[in-house]
Task: structure prediction
Amino acid sequence: MYGGGNTFEGIKTDSIAQEDPVKLAEFEARIERGEKIEPTDWMPALYRKQLIRMIEQHAHSEIIGALPEGTWITRAPGFKRKISLMAKVQDEVGHGQLLYSAAETLGKTREQMIDDLITGKSKYSNIFNYPAFTWADSCFISWLVDAGAIVNQLANAKGSYGPYCRALDRICAEESFHLKYGHHCVIYLATGTQKQRDMFQEAINRWWTPMMHFFGPSDKISAHTEVLMRWKVKMSSNDDMRNQFLDMYVPKIWELGFTIPDENLKKNPETGRWDYTEPDWEEFKRVINGDGPCNKERLEVRRIAEERGRWVRQALKKAQTKYTVPLA
Amino acid sequence: MNSLDPRVNRLPVVGKPGEISPKAPLDQLGTFEVFVQPKEGKPFQHEGIVHAPDVEMAFVLAKEAFTRRFMCVSLYVCDTRNVYVSPLTEATANAYDLISDTVEKTGGKTSFEIYHLPKRGKQHVHAGTVQAGSPQEAMAEAKRMFKNDKTVYNIWAVRTSDIRFTSAEEKDLWLTLSEKKFRDASDYKGGDKLKEFLERNNA
Result:
């Protein structure tokens, strides 16, 4: 799972002017031909920087995203749900490992990435700064947050950086189980007792704003990304991905007889796109900068785990080990 | 901390919130390359890396990281530092054309495993085994044996003795994969329940 477009600050494109024009032209021609960029290829500094930021944020999102769901494993209703949720959470942590490895091929060490997560320097998907109060919240995450992530990941899997695409292909294959599992859980709540239906309706009401935030700020207010689109770092605009998600899942939510807390939400027959109330982007900015309901808890859980595991890593470390950048 | 999760509330107080002493180099250990065989008779292919203290632990972690589902009948790992790498080429340039034919032949020969990158963006695939006295000689030998009209974009050579293989007794590690249906999308069929619900509502 992952939220795209959550890097709010604009990018500085001045550094491109300092790149070697011949190498830059070759690089762009390779992407134009549809060939992937591999770690040992020449690449512009801005490309490397943006990719590190994006892949690293994606990795952190997988690890932090496992926390609100992981907390429901012991309380999931019945053995089958427990074993499924456990498998899903294990997948998410595994995805984090794959993505950290892909980011490492660009030259940032895993140690540095973990430090930057814990000190708050690196971000992760904003949606995980909200709490999962009930089992229905956990089902909302499994079905709809994962659905949003798949929209984003399928787009990014067609990007230009080889190691990231390889990791995403593997991740997307596994996410299909998460999505089906999540939908299965929701169908059972929807066709259950009135109390179960109310639980899921309340979860939708709580999660709708963060879900709309998930794809990042509206194109009208977000930084220009033409160069990143040309380099196939960013594959789709935030609004396009949001629209694709609404197109695929709003009918499925309505079909189950639930309502969505936005009276302006409807498909515009003229444009073929969804009209909706812009979510509160000030809230998004505030939460991503640390002032959300769960930011502190998420980072504390991660930090304490890191501190408590320190002695194990030290005990395992061999004196002669030297770091080597992975190959692919 | 005041969390909804009682296990979080029970966590011991360690250090100060938001503060962590910067990690020492290699706190997360070194890296190992992982190769998986999807089916009997198919070649091994590169899947990714794991961080581990040694090759034995890397083998265990690779099993968890790369063979939870999908087909797998065997896997092996080797230290990233033991992989010898050719230059990477593009378009129609064959990486073998950059390998010198004339290498100084050395005495004692050992076996090397050779891997090809058949397409940029794809994984390295096992091409075969050669006998050579040095990695350079292994690359030249691979050129003689495996080069054909198919373009290869990158070549890896690894000394066979540096690889931690799956032993015959360990092959049963993956026998239960097909029983773990809960990891597969096909195990979550809600269609009938949904249809019945919709019919009832529309009636």
Observations:
- DSSP finds eleven helices and two strands in chain A.
- Chain A has a mean pLDDT of 93.
- The radius of gyration of chain A is 20 Å.
